[in-house]
Design brief:
alpha/beta
Length: about 700
């Protein structure tokens, strides 16, 4: 149950004065529906009204604040004309203009001969100073009614800054004095204020430095959020370790048989990772581990070796892939090897129907199938295993948390391994996968040659096509990647279908097309022709980003590369690193090219290190949608910025571990305060959800 002290923060924003149904919808769309959501909406700028200069010194377009005396009123001759009021300070006259307003109200607000304190934007027209609709007008005798520094928030249509400031004032007044959850020594070292003061200061910046993530109030708030996240993940990790699992310690016979027939030796990184996974499988608790390996690092063979350990124990294993192409690739690679060592594999996708499906499900339930490879089809109710003990989920970010939970529940106390080829920065591993053990394949197989990456403008496309024509004539295969399937009115990009037709006119029938809107059978037929060498150039969308394995394809052209994220470009380039031949990647960009896009393309040109690319991606994107991956279970932090608060994250991770070591049940006075912190940042829900990990 949420502590009652937090109730004022979790009530609906329509509990605040001035928020009706219409405004609730607008503000709710901008920030969220709760008072707390409003408080997490931090300012982005300030308007400083403290500078007071004479009117004679003011510049065109400048914000001016000062005391004036009202000289005269000039009502409009027609409705089309503005109402004008002449005011002056000791140095110059200023004309205030008002449109669509009532003269009576203006004569009351600006009595002739009286002084007013006004603030607004100055414009010079026909040599005269003018101010249209002053932002503030207060009696000169009560200057405190005008804010000296006005906080500016990110806005949306229909929401004004003045109204948001009024709501924020009410919301801040609702913040209770919460018990201190941070260590006293930490507070002293960083000179941080308490939570309530930090929140108030963050919403009342006095200068531009106060708006930065490096300011003391914002660092305090960021640390609170990171500590809540790391503590909740540490709690989940501790609970998972206590969950009863099953000991899966095979004889090693099948594993050795497989190693004996492999045409290559495992890298040291692969050997290390297999040992790490097996140590979890041998233990009596449930395994929950993330395996990260760059494109082409050999995750599939690691997956198979560890699945054989489960099979040696008389149990079944399953590997789930996000696309049929990837599932088929896994099946093709594993079936051939498993057949030689007497292990039965099967492929299950939504396209397998009728008697074939019924027979497959019967074999699965009877235990004849040792390893099942599939897509989302593994989730369906009629898929029943005899004894599922080990589940591998490939390209984890394509599956939601609930889906991961569904497949692991098909067995008894299943060990779960999630794999990804998307390199993840250390900060993301800590914040998003802190509930899981972590393994990393940081070594590529021997013999892989580097890819030569070239960046060039789209206006050189004819030269690229000419060079490609020569290469295809020599027997080379290539990819041509386009970002859209069909023309978009909003984004003027070449569609894959249009590019396919234009290239087919030049290069003939050796050009094929594959995209996400094609039927699965159609797509598979094209891919089969490409793998067989009948198609020399494959025009495609990012459907080929994951799981396409054609070693003979050594050239990739990416059209409008500036439209892709770094992670996507890295994944795409990985498609031409499957063989031992040298390969080339051409990144073509359109104009205008933003600074961030230019930086992205330069990074791709300079390095193939996926982990370095991921770190740069994080730096360029900031704390937003990192690696272009939106997924269930990924946190978008409200207050912490991963590009600026890495040091706080590392401290919070250590702090969380120490807290649970000293007070595992959070029963001490500080522990009780930390429970409030978890509820404040809504990590109570996260703890429940992450049990699916």
């Amino acid at each position: 149950m949420r502590p009652s002290i937090l109730y004022p923060l979790f009530c609906s924003i329509d509990a605040l004065n001035g928020v009706g149904q219409r405004y609730m919808k607008l503000v709710g769309g901008l920030c969220g529906a709760k008072v707390l959501d409003l408080l997490w909406h931090l300012p982005s700028n300030i308007i400083d009204r403290r500078c007071r200069i004479p009117l004679c010194q003011v510049q065109n377009g400048q914000l001016w604040t000062g005391k004036v005396r009202v000289v005269e009123h000039t009502p409009p001759k027609t409705k089309k004309h503005p109402y004008r009021i002449v005011v002056e300070d000791a140095t110059e006259q200023l004309i205030l203009t008002f449109f669509k307003t009532f003269g009576d109200s203006l004569t009351k607000q600006f009595p002739v001969g009286e002084e007013r304190l006004i603030s607004g934007k100055i414009e010079i027209f026909n040599g005269m100073l003018q101010m249209a609709h002053p932002e503030y007008v207060v009696n000169a005798a009560t200057p405190e009614q005008m804010p000296q520094v006005e906080t500016v928030y990110p806005l949306t249509a229909g929401v004004t800054n003045k109204m948001l400031n009024k709501l924020m004032k009410q919301a801040l007044n609702n913040v209770p004095q919460l018990p201190e959850w941070l260590d006293e020594h930490l507070l002293k070292v960083h000179q941080w204020p308490d939570f309530r003061t930090a929140l108030w200061q963050a919403h009342h910046p006095q200068n531009l430095d106060d708006l930065q993530p490096s300011s003391l109030p914002r660092r305090r708030l960021a640390y609170d959020e990171l500590l809540a996240n790391q503590l909740s993940l540490a709690i989940v990790r501790g609970r998972l370790k206590k969950q009863q699992g099953r000991v899966l310690q095979g004889s090693g016979v099948l594993k050795q048989k497989l190693l004996n027939i492999l045409p290559f030796s495992l890298t040291n990184a692969q050997k290390r990772v297999v040992a790490e996974i097996e140590s979890d499988m041998f233990a009596p608790y449930k395994m929950s581990r993330l395996l990260q390996g760059d494109v082409g690092s050999g995750k599939t063979i690691v997956a198979l070796l560890t699945m054989l350990n489960a099979v040696e124990c008389g149990a079944q294993a399953a590997i789930m892939a996000p696309t049929e192409i990837l599932a088929q690739q896994h099946a093709a690679a594993m079936e051939e090897l498993c057949e030689k060592i007497g292990v039965k594999t099967a492929l299950l996708t939504s396209n397998i129907k009728g008697k074939k499906r019924q027979q497959l499900l019967a074999d699965l339930q009877s235990g004849e199938i040792d390893i099942l490879i599939g897509t989302h089809a593994l989730f369906t109710e009629d898929v029943c295993f005899q004894d599922l003990a080990y589940v591998i989920i490939d390209e984890q970010h394509r599956f939601g948390v609930r889906q991961r939970l569904n497949i692991s529940q098909k067995g008894k106390n299943c060990d779960v391994l999630v794999m990804t080829a998307t390199p993840i920065p250390r900060t993301l591993v800590l914040t998003q996968y802190g509930d899981m053990e972590y393994s990393k394949i940081d070594e590529l197989p021997a013999g892989r040659q580097p890819v030569t990456t070239t960046v060039m403008p789209l206006n050189k496309i004819h030269a690229v096509v000419d060079a490609l024509q020569r290469k295809l004539s020599d027997g080379t295969q290539a990819y041509w990647v386009c970002p859209l399937v069909e023309e978009s009115e909003k984004i003027d990009l070449s569609a894959a279908t249009e590019r396919y037709e234009s290239l087919r006119e030049i290069l003939g029938e050796k050009v094929g097309l594959v995209h996400g809107k094609m039927k699965e059978a159609e797509k598979n037929a094209v891919m089969d022709d490409f793998k067989a060498g009948k198609i020399k150039l494959l025009v495609a969308t990012t459907v080929i980003e994951v799981g396409v394995n054609v070693p003979a394809a050594t050239i990739m052209v990416v059209e409008h590369a500036e439209r892709f994220g770094l992670a996507q470009l890295h994944q795409l380039r990985g498609r031409i690193k499957r063989g031992s031949a040298a390969s080339s990647c051409i990144l073509m960009y359109g104009f205008p090219l933003s600074e961030i896009s230019r930086a992205r393309l330069n990074i791709m040109k300079q390095t193939e290190d996926g982990f370095l690319i991921a770190e740069e991606d994080l730096r360029l994107r900031g704390g937003g949608e990192i690696l272009g991956t939106r997924q269930s279970g990924f946190n978008n932090f409200h207050l912490a910025d991963m590009s600026m608060h890495t040091d706080l994250l590392l401290t919070a991770t250590k702090d969380a571990a120490l807290i649970l070591q000293q007070d595992p049940n959070l029963a001490s006075p500080r522990g009780q305060a930390l429970r409030t912190l978890l509820y404040l940042f809504e990590r109570d829900e996260m703890i429940r959800t992450y049990k699916a990990g």
